[in-house]
Amino acid sequence: MADRHGPLRTPIGWFVERVNGGAISEGAAVAYGDEFGIDTLPTPFLENVSSISGGYVSVLAPTGVRRRDQADPNDVLVFLNSKGFDTETVSVRDGNVFEASAGEVFPSRPWLGDGDGGLTTTWLNGDVDGAFDKSTPLLLATGDRSLEEVFGEQARATGNNPFDTGNNPFDTGNNPFLVVAPGNVVFGDGSSHVRDVERLLDASRPAPLGGGTFGLGVLSTPNASVAGQSANPLVDVETKELLQREEAREMLKRAGVTDADEVEWLAGPKVAYREGKDPDFVTELLGSETAIESFTGVVSGREGPWWTGVHVARSSADDHVIAAGVQRAPLGTAKAAAKKGDTTLHMPVATTKGDTTLFAGREYMVSVVERLAIE
Prior knowledge:
Elements: H1 11-19, E1 28-32, E2 40-42, E3 51-53, E4 57-62, E5 77-81, E6 89-90, E7 96-101, H2 102-105, E8 137-143, H3 147-151, H4 154-157, E9 164-165, E10 170-171, E11 178-182, H5 183-187, H6 192-195, H7 197-202, E12 204-206, E13 215-221, E14 225-226, E15 229-230, H8 239-242, H9 246-255, E16 265-274, E17 282-285, E18 288-291, E19 293-299, E20 306-315, E21 320-330, H10 334-340, H11 357-370
Parallel strand pairs: 8-11
Antiparallel strand pairs: 1-4, 1-12, 2-3, 4-5, 5-11, 6-10, 7-8, 7-9, 13-21, 14-15, 16-19, 17-18, 19-20, 20-21
């Protein structure tokens, strides 16, 4: 069975949950430094490294940063890819230092229990070839803050806290490594780079938090027939059009696609995957064979728009049943979101299979539909 709680067993999941006020389902975004204005990032918290190219910097921004006019630097995490350094050893100037492996800190790629347990490269910017797997060494610098202050109470309550007191200097020989730190350690308290929430989120893609952001909605309507033809007006409606109708929008709201009072499409829905009889995405819904269709778009929200992926299965074996799995991630401005649509997410919309949050949700939906029973 799909594991929706996997991210909550990792420090990354704890961090997102803390910033989101306990709601990991609201998700997070990952932005790359060179895509939101960082050409070169000074690193004064490191003794022997003065700066790193923005092309090797990524920032994790949970949705909770949108609740203020300006983001609190303590509420973002910064990842530095060591391929942007010119040294094999780094020393933290001041504050607390911890060590772990990447596989202990980041959620695994698969949403299902039968995957290889690898890590998606979305977290890191720059060249990640051979630089990011479960064994990659990770140095965490928290300044004067404790693990609990950075990651929340989970860091103290869990018996699986992966962090050990770090060696300073941190030397991994000739092996790639990561440096991770809260935003205030890297940027200080006054950096416009992370305080400009809209700019940060408009340059982002969804954080790969596994099934933590997934929700499911079901719509069932009678499928009476007249002279052998269905009298249900929804049966013959194309799924793209169906998702814009009031009945389906109410279903998507129940599934958690937005925190607004109603679902308003700002861009899309746009067909992302419609692979017909691809056996990987043909399953049974209530005894009737169905293919999973996937769409992307942008919907409005209370504090800002949401990118959304919607995965739909339909059956007319008895009643006409529509099941929709939804996933979401925060965007910055409605104007940018409507202009960019799903390209804001830096995701393919063709039928190619790739290591993306959207495709992982599509695979997850197959598992969900197979287990769906409606009484």
